[in-house]
């Protein structure tokens, strides 16, 4: 993912009148990246993590479906061994 500050830099360079080619060279990104950023709305926040969460960027967690089960096990027995959590989680899938 291209950082928000880099996206902002591209948008500022374009707004200042630089060509897409010059912008790509100055910002040290590909021309295709500049073309993608042109199509995006203006950057408002520079926190990359917040932006990923807001736009739901990235792959979904493969562990997320087990969150409720693991939380329940840990609440019931805080001293449970992680191997036992794994064993119970695997048996729940079968």
Overview of this structure, please?
With 94 residues, this protein is an all-alpha fold. The chain has two domains: 4-55; 64-93, no CATH class. It contains six helices and no strands. The protein has helices spanning 4-15, 20-27, 31-38, 48-55, 67-76, 82-93. It is rod-shaped. The relative contact order is 0.11.
The number of helices is 6
Shape: rod-shaped
Structural category is mainly alpha
Order of helices and strands: HHHHHH
Largest sheet: none
Rounded average pLDDT: 90
Low-pLDDT regions: none
- Rg from Cα: 22 Å
- Beta-strand residue percentage: under 5%
Q: How many runs of DSSP E, i.e. beta strands? A: 0
Distance between the termini: 36 Å
Number of domains: 2
Helix % is 55-70%
Primary descriptors:
94 residues; mainly alpha; 2 domains; 6 helices; 62% helix
SSE diagram, text form:
Layout: H1 4-15, H2 20-27, H3 31-38, H4 48-55, H5 67-76, H6 82-93
Helix pairs in contact: 1-2, 2-3
Question: Can you give me a brief rundown of this structure?
Answer:
By secondary structure, this protein is mainly alpha-helical. Helix content is 62%, strand content 0%.
